[in-house]
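Section 5: illustrative case.
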């Protein structure tokens, strides 16, 4: 009898443990991405204070990519073949060299919070791109676009005078271009989703993109000697590599594989909030009523757009 009770108890414990791992770990991964990807905007802002932004992005991606690829080389994992290389190269350019590189460059001229909010509107570009491809929009998506645009207008109300500054305009342009590139990358990922190991693919994308960025900074003469990079920027790079590139991407892919889209998409709404709040606390960036209301309205519109996209795919 005691043995039977012990066996039943063990089965219950195993079932509970399995249930916790099935639900608890993906939620923890989601919370990790929500917070730490929001903090990367602060680290990027700190890093680009004393060094070229594209060089910072290149170093970050080179170190992060080397860690990923080094691990899979140690494990003797199979390398991509044929068309898988084409997909990896295109995504390395769209998602890392362009999107990450331009967004990092953008926060050199605008606040980290504003950069994060602009980055969050990439679903709007996905909708616009699909419209140009001939797909019809449902009413909720159209309404969400209008709401988001209204929210962005409210946010920029406090920045009207800043548009006189050419650096501010340049930072906004870079941030917008980065979201467009990420939108194209997202659509391409959906269209060309490969069976190749996604973590190994990320490492290769980072390495390839770092080569592109180093080539650009070298050809334009905008890079600085490694020895002249200050300690604060190196600490920012270390944070971006560990928390932004390695651990957060592991958590991101893990949650994508185990949580429904309507849940794992929450990070897109939380990241800007984290960035805005930390930007105000750490850098003293303005946190006005216009930013708070406009940000909430923009994120609400984005939710409508995302919801309509998910419903259309069902």
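Designed sequence:
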């Amino acid at each position: 009898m005691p043995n039977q009770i012990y066996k039943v108890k063990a089965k219950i414990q195993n079932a509970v443990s399995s249930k916790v791992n099935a639900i608890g770990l993906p939620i923890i991964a989601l919370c990790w991405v929500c917070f730490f990807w929001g903090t990367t905007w602060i680290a990027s802002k700190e890093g680009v204070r004393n060094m070229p932004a594209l060089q910072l992005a290149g170093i970050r991606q080179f170190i992060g990519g080397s860690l990923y690829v080094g691990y899979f080389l140690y494990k003797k994992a199979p390398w991509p073949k044929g068309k898988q290389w084409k997909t990896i190269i295109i995504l390395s350019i769209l998602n890392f060299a362009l999107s990450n590189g331009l967004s990092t460059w953008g926060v050199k001229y605008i606040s980290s919070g504003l950069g994060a909010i602009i980055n969050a509107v990439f679903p709007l570009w996905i909708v616009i791109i699909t419209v140009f491809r001939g797909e019809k929009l449902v009413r909720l998506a159209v309404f969400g676009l209008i709401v988001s645009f209204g929210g962005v207008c409210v946010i920029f109300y406090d920045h009207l005078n800043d548009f006189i500054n050419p650096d501010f305009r340049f930072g906004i342009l870079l941030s917008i271009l980065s979201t467009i590139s990420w939108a194209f990358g997202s659509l391409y990922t959906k269209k060309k989703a490969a069976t190749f190991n996604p973590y190994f693919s990320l490492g290769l994308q980072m390495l390839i993109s770092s080569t592109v960025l180093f080539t650009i900074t070298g050809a334009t003469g905008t890079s600085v000697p490694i020895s002249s990079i200050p300690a604060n920027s190196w600490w920012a790079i270390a944070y971006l590599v560990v928390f932004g590139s390695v651990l957060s991407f592991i958590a991101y892919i893990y949650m994508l594989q185990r949580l429904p889209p309507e849940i794992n998409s929450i990070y897109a709404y939380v990241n800007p909030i984290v960035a805005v709040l930390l930007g105000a606390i750490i850098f003293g960036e303005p946190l006005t009523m216009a930013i708070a209301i406009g940000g909430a309205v923009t994120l609400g519109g984005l939710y409508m757009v995302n919801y309509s996209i998910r419903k259309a795919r069902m």
